[in-house]
Amino acid sequence: MIKVIAFFKRKPGMSVEDFQNYWRTTHAEVVKKLPGLRRYVQSHTLVSGYRKGEPVYDGTAELWYDDTNALRALVNTPELTATQTDELNFIDRSTMGQIFTEEHLIKDGAIPTNGVKNIEFVTHKPGMSIEAFQKHWREIHGPLGASIPVVRRYVQSHTRVSAYKSGKAPAYDGVAITWFDDTQAMRVSATTPEYDRTRADEPNFIAPGKLPVIITKEHVIVA
User: Fold this and answer.
1) DSSP assignment string, 35-72
2) Counting runs of H as helices and runs of E as strands, what totals does the chain give?
């Protein structure tokens, strides 16, 4: 299974509320018609997250397909054309990026009904091979993050190794996704020794600097 993760900002001049409503209703109906689409999830940046300024992205779209053949079959279809055309109605396409990933479930758990979803965009440490990066993230860092008590579910989406064969660097090397009961639980997590150990490991495989992060509300469109 391949998961495509798209990330973007809203169209200039559009309110956050109008953007989220259009995306969740009108655009969702267009995307649902894509051939071969197995699952589709929208994650909307919390409205409260704008109080301190504009977040790095207004949300992410996650789309699952069986394999690369299913993705190739989308090319030049009227459904894909309709999706891309409709994006112009609410997305600033100049901000839009996507990565093709393989998902790794690190901590299995139920997604809280009214929970929040933390999304971190990850870039590997300079000089570290992608294979070593992915192995460390999955096998060493993953268990550390999973040990944080208030984390309900934890998924790593690793950019597919084939994305690097052309010599081009993808926008990100992966996305770390964790679910919590609420934002208060997230604040509590940052006070735990397990959190401290998790953060202390990041310089071992992640590029220096602050990770781009958005805190979101998840909307499952196609289950």
Assistant:
1) TT--EEEEEEEPGGGGTTS--S-SEEEEEEESSHHHHH
2) 8, 8
The tens-digit pLDDT sequence of the chain (223 residues) is 999 999 999 999 999 999 999 999 999 999 999 999 999 999 999 999 999 899 999 999 999 999 999 999 999 999 999 999 999 999 999 999 999 999 999 999 999 999 999 999 999 999 999 999 999 999 999 999 999 999 999 999 999 999 998 888 999 999 999 999 999 999 999 999 999 999 999 999 999 999 999 999 999 999 9
Cα–Cα distances in Å, from 170 out to 46, 59, 61, 162?
Answer: 26, 18, 17, 11
Residue bearing tokens 């993760």:
5
Fold classification of 2-222 (topology level): Alpha-Beta Plaits (3.30.70)
Provide the token pair at 108.
Answer: 């299995």
Say which residues have a Cβ less than 8 Å from residue 202's Cβ, sequence separation at least 6. 141, 211
